[in-house]
Amino acid sequence: MELSQDDKRALLALIWSLMRSDLSILHAALQEPAEAQIATTRDSGNYIFYSKLERLGLARAVAPDPDLPPQALKALETTKIYSLSKWGRAELPALLEAALNSGYPPNDSIISSEAVGMLLKYSKYDDPPSQSKLAVLYEKGAGVEQNDGQAMRWYQRAAAAGDLTATNNIGFLYFAGQGVERNIAEALKWFVRAAELGSSGAMENIGEMYARGIGVEQSDTEAFQWFRKAADRGNGTAACRVGSCYGTGRGVPQDNVQAHVWFSVGIAAGYDAAQDRDVVASKLTPDQLNEANLLVSQWKPCDER
Question: What is the pTM (predicted TM-score) of this model?
Answer without folding.
Answer: 0.86
